[in-house]
Give the backbone structure.
Amino acid sequence: MNGIVQFLWLIPVLPLLAAGIIAVNKQPQRRLAATLAIGSMALGFLLSLGAFSATLAPHEGAGPFRAVDGFNWIQFGGPDHWLQLGWVLDPLTAIMLVMVTFVGLLIFIFSVGYMAQDQNFMRFFCFLALFAAGMLGVVIANNLFLFFVSWEIVGLTSYLLIGFWFHKPSAAAAAKKAFITTRIGDLGLLLGMVWLYAQTGTLNFYDHGKGCLEAGACMQMATQVTLGGLAVSTMIGLLIFLGAVGKSGQVPLHVWLPDAMEGPTPVSALIHAATMVAAGVFLVARVYPLMAAGAPPLETGVPVTTALTVVTWVGAITAIFAASIAVAQYDIKRILAYSTVSQLGFMMIGIGVGGVAVGMFHLITHAFFKALLFLGSGSVIHGCHEEQDVRKMGGLRKYMPVTFVVYAIGMLALAGFPLFFSGFWSKDEILHHAHNWSGSPIPFYLGCAAALLTAFYMTRQVALVFYGKYRGGAGDHAPAHAHAEAPAHGRQPSAHDHDLDPDHNHGHGHGTPHESPAVMTVPLMILAAFAILLGFIGTPAWPWFDGYLTGEAASFDLGKLFTSGTVFVLLLSSVIAFTGLTLGWILYGQRQRQNAGEKDVLEAAQPTLFKLLHNKYYIDEIYELTVIRFNAFAAWLCDFLDQWIFGGAVLLVSYAAIGGAWVCRRTDEYLINGGFDAACALLRELGGGSSKLHTGRVQTYLRVIGVALVLLILFLIWGRKA
Amino acid sequence: MNPLTICLLISALLFATGFAGAVTRRHAILVLVGIELMLNAANLNLIAFWRFGPHPEALTGFIFVLFSMALAAAEAAVGLSLVIAIYRHQQTSNLDEVRELKG
Amino acid sequence: MFEQLNRFFAPVDQIFVTTLHWLVGFLPAAWRPVASSMLCIAFILMVFPALFSIVTIFERKGIGRIQNRYGPNRVGIPGTKIRLAGFGQFLPDGLKMLTKEDIVPRAADKLVHFLAPVVLLIPVLLTYAVLPFGRNMALADYDAGLLFFFAVGGAVEVSVFMAGWSSRNKYSLLGAMRAIAQMLSYEIPLILSSVTVVMIVGSLNLTRIVEAQAGHTFGLANWFVFTPWGLLGYLIFFIASLAESNRSPFDLPEAESEIIAGYFTEYSGFKFALFFLGEYLGMFAIISLGITLFLGGWTAPFACLDFIPSYLWFLTKMLGIVFIFIWIRATLPRLRMDQLMNFAWKFMLPLALLNVLVAGLWHYLAIGPLRWIACATIIIVAYVALGRGLMRHQKLGQRTYRYAD
Amino acid sequence: MSTLLIITAVVTLFAAVAAMSLRNLVHCALMLAVSFSGVAALYLQLNAEFVAFTEILVYVGAVAILIVMAILLTRSGESPEKSVLTAGWYAGVAVTAMVFTTLGWAILSSSALPQTVAPAPVVSVKNIGDTLMGRYVLPLEIVGLVLTAAMIGAVLIAFKAEPRDKNQKS
């Protein structure tokens, strides 16, 4: 049974190998790079299917299928202190493996077409392969250390890929922003990791009973109480959740994700829709036993602990927040980015209220239709000659019929159109569990509002892009090379804009938009199919997905659909979906916008609110003011201290030393030498004088002796008397 | 004037003559003679004190004189050989001329 | 049987002492000591000059006899025909001495020249004060008698120098220097040999030394000369005394052949007579000291002869040794100056020092044959070794002359 | 006793003064011998018999002769020089006067002198021998050593330097 586990490590290593070979390669063989990357992903996909089938097969032992393998890597400290690296195969891993490899494969194929004209084709595919390796490493890791290493590789590759067109200052700034914000999150993850190791003595999740996520360790940690009355497990869970917040772009650390759209569209699709952002949610799912440790006895089947409540609340806030901003955006990719953030919020709510299965189901479905939407927008931009502002598009139905159909399916799945689309089922699960959540009803209401807004801005986007008449190519073609990239910053086209950017050199081709080639549309169709079919594996009637994850068998029973709780939520969510769609159509579908410069409908209605939302609640500006300013001030303070206080002190000491030396020299030279010279001179004089005494005449000596004798006698006599 | 003071006076006189000779006479040998006289004066003094002293039986002064005589003889021998050596070296034993301190 | 003889002759033995006391008895007590010493001095001054005169003739006849001739045999009792075999010769000699003209060289240092003979006689006569001529017949029996004898004896050299130097004559000065050198160098063996006797007896007093030699063993008197160290000691003493009195083999100072009469060449008449008397009195004194130290002074050689008076024994021993002196003078050739010095410093001195050692050994060893054998062997070995040492350089090589430059 | 003492004292002092002032060195030496015997006589009167004889033996017998020999060797017997005294002899005389007055004053004024006239001590040679060999045996050995050293030293110093190379006539 665990045969496949032994080769599980092959899945991340293959793309890693491919990335290595591509990187080492000197000549730009595009064909070699593409085949290598796609080949490694295909092999990975096959292996993942193998692993998936292994988990499906009946196995002994209760609970979900779990097989662990690993090896000792570094010995540190005593003989038994080993840093182990290991990988685990359980349902969670299997699903993620299949999803990541399949979506990755499709996006690789799509990006072959998309990046055809780019000079750095090689470098692009090297980074993509590296990213895949990192992502797969995260998925299979059974050891928090291996997990953290791969997590960092993923962060690195996201930086590289966002800043792929590094000659564009905005891209470079965005990459840096992404990297730093995720780093802040990772700090929490690192602290959590260290604390976990300190508590349990091992970083392995599952280690035949000794792992840190196993019952023994969790209970032990749950009982210990740290400062503030929180259990240790809660604290560690929250710290790890901080990592997830950073990576998945939850509220405080979400600022980097919209800017990450600077990267090429496949990148956005792969990283900022399907996989990487999902890694945060996967992390929470993986660490769920830790977070759920110490929960009161399960009466509603879903443990409620402080950690999970925090996750839920963060998720809820992010969902409503991001959704509201998305409504007021003009850039096609930016709208999708905010929708991703909002959907990630939904996943967090799912895990918080419903446990791992609910969150993961929405993650899987979202991965497919969000990838679909991003690739669709990619082919739209490709078609409109790198035009990203929805106000300059319109009426693309006629020009890109395939893209329109596929995009529409993706939009309906995202909006949660009832019954047929996966989005509906997964979002329904979340809302259902949120409704039954014993914590508080507010997340449920926020969830509903967010769902409404989602449906509204998606229809707005589709209406603006595909309906009405084509507004691009005429209006503001001001400067010859102006390529309207990311209008949000009002960026001035940099003078040295060389023609690396593929969207650019395509612009002045022929004026009218055109359909994308087959290599781009085929993956779209496959994704669209999955966007529809995936929903059925997790419906309340046949909760296969839930059973698969928890290990029990799932029976097909339409009756469950009509139990009181589920029916109410089903109906509610479909009502929400419909209201969102109709609102969107009314505002944007019927009253088509005439030209690019026209004011938006909402803007006309609520100019201040619209402006607020358009500028992302001025979060960037707030950060700019607070964190950056503080940082600058700290830097300035350190510089000041270093220069004046410490520098001054050093200067003072040196001056003191020099002064001391000078004083020593002076005293030495004048006082001591002078003194000795004078003494020597005196002695010489004395010597000279006394030498005169020795005349050599013996008689004088005798006379002196005589006198001395006299003096001696007198002294003796008088001495005695006195 | 008990005999002791007489003897002491005699030895003082003898010492004075010896000293005068040693200090004023020009000839080297006479200086030595003067020294011999002074030594004799000292011996006389010793014997006087021994004779009139409180413990004559202790014989200290007596023995002291014997030793001083022996040493005086040795000193005279060496002194005279020095004078002879100087004479041979500088062909004069006139102390005023024998002033060369160099070796 | 000998005790009666002794008792009979005892008064004879003490005749001089009794007469002295008898004479002194007449004077008041206060004057007695002075008077008695005066008398003794007078007696000595009479006896020894007379002895001097007899010995001079005795010497001239002896040397004559040895040289196979008669010697003076014309002068007997003056004014008569009796020849007395020439023993009256001293009268005309004395007369000649007194009547000869007393020549004083012009360049001589008048005072010193005149004082020389006087300074010679004073110490010599002083030495007689200490000598014990008979039983309790010693004039001044000092506790440190021997030391007195040598101290005064040492003063003779001053007079010799005065004589030699004052006559401003190269020969006399040369003679004086030789005499002083000889007397000094022989004084040390003389004193060292007498030190051995003092060591054994334990006292410097001459009478005590003589009493130490009283008594007889196996009939023979136990004089010091009959002990190994005593024999060697007396031998050294005898040779040294020859040298001290400038006689026979050591009479370089007045070697007629080389420097006429030595330090008293410039003396004539009465001063010459005094020098002559001084020399002979010096000889008698040193001989009598030899007798008291080694030959038992006035004791008789054999127990049976004890009855003979002590002074007679003293006199006979003295005459015997004087005869030996004369005998040596007639036979032995004169020693050269360097031979004389060598002999003194390289032969006599080491032997004398060794003798002191042997005497010490003798004193500590128990009486018996072992003592005799040990001391005898040491002395013989040393004598032979030193003898050989002396002869080693005497290569009878060709005579070389060094001329004065 | 004191009259005899004074007589010998006068003789000794007269001889000493003569020894110091005569022009002819040999006469000085002889007068020195006389003064030494005078001192010996003083010793006799102070009942130091042994010391007197030693004095005669050592000083009169040996030192006087030594001095006379030295005079002859340095050929200073014949030629009495021009002035007998060294230059600046007056300073010498002054110092002597000072010395003598101090000594005299010290003797006359000192109160520590024993006033009583002790009986004549009887000193036997055996007694002297015992003390010499008993308490003063070390000084005796040392004096022996000193005398030997002095003898050798005197000979070496006064030795006529050998001509360096044989053929050089000295």
